[in-house]
Amino acid sequence: MSNEVFDLKKTVNLPKTDFAQKANLGQSEPARLKKWEEMGLYEKIAEVRKGREKFILHDGPPYANADIHIGTALNKILKDFVVKSRSMMGYDAPYVPGYDCHGLPIENYVERKLKEKGKNKDDIPTNTFRRICREHASTAMNNQTRDFKRLGILGEWETPYLTMSNEYEAETARLFGIYVERGFVYRGARPVYWDVYDQTALAEAEVEYADVVSPSVYVKFLLKSDPALIDEKLAGKNVKCVIWTTTPWTLPANLGISVNPRFDYSAIEVGDEVLLIATELVVSVAEKAGFDATKEIVRFKGEKLDKLEAQHPWLDRVSLIMLGDHVTLGDDSADDDGKKSGKTAGTGLVHTAPGHGTDDFYIGQRHGLPAYCPVNAKGVFTEEVEHFAGEFVFKANPKIVEFMRDNGSLLFHEDYTHRYPHGWRSHKPVIYRATPQWFIAMDNQGDKSLRAQALREVENVKWHPAWGEGRMANMIKGRPDWCVSRQRVWGVPIIAFHCTSCEHCVIDAKLIYHVADIFAAETADAWYNREASELLPDGYKCQECGNGEFTKETDILDVWFDSGSSSVAVLETRGDTLHFPADVYLEGGDQYRGWFNSSLMCGIAAHDRAPYKQIVTHGWVVDGEGKKQSKSLGNVTSPHEIIDRSGAEIMRLWAAAVDYTEDVRCSDEILSRVTDAYRKFRNTARYMLGNLDGFDPAAQSVAEAEMLEIDRWALASLNEVTKTVLDGYKNFDFQASYSALYHFCTVTLSARYLDILKDRLYIYAPTSLERRSAQTGLYKLTDSLCRLLAPMLAFTSDEAWENLPGQQVASVHLAEFPAVSEADNSELLARWERIYGIRDEVLKALEAARGEKVIGSSLEAKVILSVDKDTTMFLLDYYPQLRYIFIVSQVEVHEADSLGIKIEKADGEKCERCWNYSVRVGEFEKYPTVCERCIEALSELEKAAAA
RNA sequence: GCAUCAAUAGAUCAAAUUGGUAGAGCAAACGGUCGAUAACCGUUAGGCUUCAGGCUCAAAUCCUGAUUGAUGCACCA
Q1: Helix H segments across A117-197?
Q2: Gap from A859 CA to B28 C1', in Å?
Q3: How far is the CA of A587 from the C1' of B5 (A)?
Q4: Which end of chain A is less packed: N or C, by CB atoms within 10 Å?
Q5: Which nucleotide has the shortest C1'-to-CA distance from A914?
Q6: How far is the CA of A478 from the C1' of B53 (A)?
Q7: Which nucleotide across the nucleic acid strands is nearest to A629, CA versus C1'?
Q8: Strand B: which bases are under 7 Å from protein Cβ?
Q9: Pick from A503, A507, A602: which is nearest to A551 by CA?
Q10: Tens of pLDDT along A494-526?
Q11: Nearest nt (C1') to A420 (CA)?
Q12: How far apart are CA A900 and CA A838, in angstroms?
């Protein structure tokens, strides 16, 4: 045995690890991403999980137009939680990201850019324009990919699906062919904004509002139906419906009058006429028109007017009265600046021209009225319009007013200033005009109709949250036929041909498949590069007239059709990687109307079933006060800023910590709390790693039966959290997983277990059972913690994983979640809950003693516990360890009637090595400043040094 | 305007399927420690559960209405 005297400080086993306290995420994250890329982590995971059951999250494609915002980041992070957690559950969980590349916002962007260079869209060939759109989408997509990768999201980033790729465009076209084949597609008319100067359809976004003066006219329509149907008192009277409009030129297209079923209407006798006007508006109309409105014959609900017929004021045509909730009382709308117009106008009976208004169109559609539009592309009345054929509509306005004044149908006319839509290029007033459009019918094919099937499928999908089912069902019930045509160029063309001779429109699934094959080779640009004859099979002839010459349809498909077809265009075109249907779609709540809806239709068209088994939706990111983030309010949080300042890991943890099913707040305070939590996770892991320095789990672990009870308690607690955490992942309730882990780290580990363990780890000889038992526990805890945190803290858990001794697996993301033991530990857990209850009381007493300056450090204390008999018996088993559990130097337990805790100054002297107080300090010759426990440890150390 | 969802300490979340007197850690304040140190431990103080009604012995929880917020749809003829 050596006579050398140890430097006591050096015999204490202090923690040591390369896992730094400071995360330095700004640098460490990119370094780790690089490492993952170099080792091919995503591919390795796929390899390891090969042959396992699949779990497919199908990515809803973000729009490839701009940089990502915080909402996009939240969406992708949540998806990554799903993919990583399912993979760690043992599933083969691939992630193929996608991008939505076609559509109007990109067209608009490109047009704007062209304009800046003094060029016009119409001056360049369509395919040049499409090429620029394609380039723009590519650029945006590349930027987004860079940002998504930076967030630590693993997936097939080198081969994402693009709705503008040749394969995808071909699949989109083919799917349209399937709709055609199944008889869902029809050609109809629908009103759209129409610029009569540019002679083009305009999208909502291309319309600007400006004040104009319009003729405001009140017009009388003779009730043709028997007035007695409304009320006996009206029998035989000359009853007239009064309507109001500011667009007299739409009157030739009037096919109906809409009333609100819930409003009151009055029948007012004026001279030899009885006028029908909404009760609430009678006074204002009478004032304007200057008649005496005191003679109300009867008052009745609008529903009484249902399906009665009126006579057009000058045409030999019936105008159908229809019930609609869109009918409002007067003009109570607010202007853009938020001020009420204060004007009263209207009669509660609304002139309805289905060819000239969206509302008119939908109500007309429900009542079987056509979208009648006797106005041509130049805004000129067609031949069929009596009296006004060949007139430009805005010029016809005063003439129509005069005409009605002459024939007595005009009740009143005035000038009226209001906001009216204008073309953003022409800056001239636009009109609403029905034009030929392509529709997908919701209700034909009977039992196999899209609506009927969709409603059935909705019940087979599992919705998170559960109210999603009702919301989706409502959407499907209420949605009109799907208008899939757009008068644009950046998209997938609708494959139809028009015979140049008889104008017959050819829409044929076989032709569509033929052209789709060409798209597959050349992209949809082929539609614009080739002549119709080069797209049709050789010698194709019109079936109506035998003519062989055709022109191409110019409309393209709605972008929702593009993305909606992803279930077939992606899930079924990636070999063994993916399959239809997907297990889950996870998107923002706006997608009930959008992608969930269009995908459902497409899934049904292709396979008669929903393309997803589960739907998870998340809310929107709002500011710290719950307000919507917007550029004008300046409350926008940029993901780049968060990443640069705090790291992607903080954003991931934020996504995990909040309740994403509702609107999610994001503010500096919230992020600062999340950062605190991050530090807690990190420091907890670091401390455990530090105490595992040099530990060889394979050789030095202690069998569970031989472990100290508190170490077994820690493992039993771990098992409980593991259950909770795995349940959370399984149910997409990441917050539950996060909370459980956070509570485990702060309370179970940091405040209790690790604090108590400190003495044992530092003081006992490295090879002692006491220390090895603790390390065995710590090893299992750290290993499990890394795995359980991995989906959320993708970077940090992997970093900790690398620092775990004896590591065989190259990344935590290749590992699986720890198994849950079914062993019943409830008694063990309950015993320790009781101990911690007593400990909490002791800690309070210690704090009081500290306040009175009896002690500073708790090791300066002796605790004298008075407890009841039962507790005395209970504590008997723990008597020797109580001082370590309480982190004091001495504990006495006395039986008493009630609980009492007395704190005294500990007996003896402070041991220089372990800082505990002991009366035996000074007894030992070689180390006179040390206690009996340290002497033992030191002799062990001496033995080891000699060997 | 219509539909859906929500509202609990400063912030983030709990409070069971079936109503039973609201909890946690964090932050704050104060203290300890100086062997996890840009760490660690403790103590204390924070809530008319958005508001107003109702059912009930009993309501954060159920019902009605309002307010606020978010999203979707529609609308300004």
Answers
A1: 126-150, 166-181
A2: 28
A3: 16
A4: C
A5: B35
A6: 34
A7: B70
A8: 1-6, 10-14, 24-27, 31-44, 69-77
A9: A503
A10: 999 999 999 899 999 999 999 999 999 999 999
A11: B76
A12: 11
The ipTM value here is: 0.94
Coil, strand or helix at A211: strand
By C-alpha to C1' distance, B39 is nearest to A683
Please say whether the beta carbons of A651 and A73 come within 8 A.
yes
Average pLDDT over residues A725-747: 96
Q: How open is the CA angle A41-A42-A43, to the nearest 5 degrees?
A: 90
Rounded to whole angstroms, the distance from the CA of residue A456 to the C1' of nucleotide B59 is 38
pLDDT reported for residue A287: 84
pLDDT, tens only, A330-361 = 543 333 222 233 345 678 888 999 888 877 88
A249-266 confidence digits (pLDDT tens)? 999 999 999 888 777 888
pLDDT at A865 over 90: yes
pLDDT digit string, tens, across residues A767-786: 999 999 999 999 999 999 99
In this structure, what token pair is assigned to residue A238? 């000359």
CA distances from A621 to A628, A636, A637 (A): 7, 9, 9
**Residue A830's CB: how many other CB atoms inside 10 A?**
10
Distance of CA A746 to the CA centre of its chain: 31
Task: Give the tens place of pLDDT for each residue, A914-924.
Answer: 999 999 999 99
Nucleotide nearest to A685 (CA to C1'): B36
Between CA A328 and C1' B1 the distance (Å) reads: 8
Output the distance from A194 CA to B59 C1' rounded to whole Å. Answer: 57
Percent of chain A with pLDDT over 70: 97
Distances (CA, A) of A271 to A222, A291, A293: 15, 9, 10
> Which residue intervals of A159-281 are DSSP H helices?
166-181
SS3 A918: strand
